[in-house]
Amino acid sequence: MNLATHAGLIAGTSVLAIASTGTAGDLDSVIDGIINDSATISGDDAFSMSGLFAYGFNHTDADSYAGGIGSAHLTFGGAAGDWNWTFNYVLDGNSGYYGDGGQEMRDYAIWQEMDNGFSFGMGNVKSIFLKANSIAEDNTLQINNTQTGTNLEGRGEQIGFGYEADQFRVMGRAYDVDGADADGFSTEFRAEFLAMGSWDDCNCFGCMAGSESTLVIGASMSDDSLFDGTSIDVTYKTDAWAIHAAQTEADALNWDAMTVQASYFFADSTMAYISYEDEDTLADDLDIGINHYYSDSCKATLEI
């Protein structure tokens, strides 16, 4: 159990979205959109930029405060014709919730989404092995990632595909791992079944009061060049409550862990959360905290 008290502030603001073609409209509406976290000018080719800035400290039993828990990075994205693109630049050298692998250019990708639900692309992004690592950093529950999330993040150069239907979706990735395989590739696959609810409500582990009930069951596998393992998870949300549970085994890292995360919105803008992790080779980890959302793009976290 982590006995230190952590506090942090995380803010992400959509700065600007413009287009290379189309009509800008009146300036007042564009400025108003920027202030309210979004500004869009219609057109075929679009560009956007957003920033995430996080800073925290911990208070130990010795009454000392240590800073440096945080991250600052900018994300750029856009579309050109049928193709989407994005890249993420780390500003301060701190990895934040997700690691950066020592790279200033952390994530980058190009991809295409087709009308029939199929998508494909390439780039350097996080592994799809863990459901918990698909959550955007500004939507995460706690300040730091879980031990399982940190050790099995698996970011790397890859090509991938996805297919989404009304009640199921599948994803696959092939990684460039020179020297690990004779063919130089490692693969992983993930499938999810939406038993109830909407895919739009599957991007975080929180649930606002009055939200529809959502139940997602997922499973993933990876070959021996990456993690050589499997992960099975369940996520359920209903009316201010959310719970996520996962059982993960990765033989290549001798990793066997059970993770349970739950949250409850006890006020319109404030949630309490708990995260528990039981890993065979490490001590159990328990985090309890509160998130208060000042807006869609700014929250404060107090964690024990």
What's this model, at a glance?
This protein is 5% helix and 56% strand.
Describe the structure.
This protein is mostly beta strands and 304 residues long. It has one domain: Porin (Beta Barrel). It has two helices and 16 strands. It has a 16-stranded antiparallel barrel. The longest helix has 9 residues. It starts with a strand and ends with a strand.
Q: Write down the CATH topology.
A: Porin
Strand content: over 45%
Low-confidence stretches: 13-27, 33-42
The number of distinct helices, counting runs of at least 4 residues, comes to 2
Structural class: mainly beta
Strand order of the largest sheet: 1-2-3-4-5-6-7-8-9-10-11-12-13-14-15-16
Q: What is the H/E string?
A: EHEEEEEHEEEEEEEEEE
Question: What overall geometry do the principal axes of the alpha carbons give?
Answer: globular
What distance separates the N and C termini? 9 Å
**Rg, alpha carbons:** 20 Å
CATH class: Mainly Beta
Number of strands: 16
Number of domains: 1
